[in-house]
Write a structure and sequence with these properties.
mainly alpha; 4 helices; about 95% helix; about 130 residues
């Protein structure tokens, strides 16, 4: 059970880190801004589903191994549901309305949430080590 928990948690941490710090940067370096924005907007729903599924599965496995780490990953899954269903819709609505102030505020919230989630996934790995 521990090797599976470790692999799932490492996959979550690595995937979230790569998406957050690599994917957007590559899109904006490779494509013009409108194309890159469309790419990111199209990728986020899928990314969030992947995080929800991976964090939920890893959390369920971890509950049997380390309850603190498991609870942290379940929290990642739950907060990602919020990010996908509520926050992402608000960000898209602000963008569509041209409300840059609301976009910046909401995007800032999503960035902080993502960084906290990455930190929690990393901490879960440390707890398994």
């Amino acid at each position: 059970m521990i090797p599976l928990a470790l692999l799932l948690t490492a996959l979550l941490f690595g995937g979230m880190t790569l998406f957050s710090f690599g994917f957007a940067a590559v899109l904006f370096k490779t494509f013009d801004a409108p194309t890159a924005r469309r790419g990111i907007r199209g990728a986020f729903p899928h990314y969030y589903l992947w995080v929800i599924a991976n964090a939920g599965l890893a959390g369920a496995v971890l509950l049997a191994v380390n309850s603190m780490a498991g609870t942290m990953l379940i929290a990642i899954a739950l907060t990602t549901i919020y990010a996908r269903q509520v926050l992402m819709a608000q960000i898209n609505a602000a963008t569509d309305a041209g409300d840059t102030g609301a976009f910046k505020r909401l995007h800032g919230i999503s960035v902080v949430l993502q960084l906290v989630q990455i930190g929690a996934a990393g901490w879960a790995l440390v707890l398994l080590g």
